[in-house]
């Protein structure tokens, strides 16, 4: 059987509630005084109503809109990682051309280092894209 909560304590608990339980340590004495018999029976509500009202309070349409906006902002921020990856790849191959011009004899050695740098930079870009897609579609 769920505990009966007074209506006056309900409004206090709704704003002070921080977890998934319906007990609030700072309001426990306040609620206990009403459960001892002070006040009429019509002032009490069921604990299930408290949980149901609290869930609708947290999952309102404005909260869903805020969550969706946060997803888009996070995905946009993760997209900046892909732009950084593109800039890194451009820098790597630009430096490769400059190095070829300075010393053409090291062409094979320089190309292997450039491919390694390209792969690492591309991996960072792919990780950023993965995070962006996870933010949009997984959470």
Automatic annotation (TrEMBL):
GO terms for cellular component: mitochondrial membrane; proton-transporting ATP synthase complex; proton-transporting two-sector ATPase complex, proton-transporting domain. The chain crosses the membrane at residues 72-101, 113-138. One of its GO terms (molecular function) is proton transmembrane transporter activity. The keyword Phosphoprotein does not apply. GO terms for biological process: proton motive force-driven ATP synthesis. Its main location: mitochondrion. Belongs to the ATPase C chain family. PANTHER family: ATP SYNTHASE LIPID-BINDING PROTEIN, MITOCHONDRIAL, ATPASE PROTEIN 9. This is ATPase protein 9.
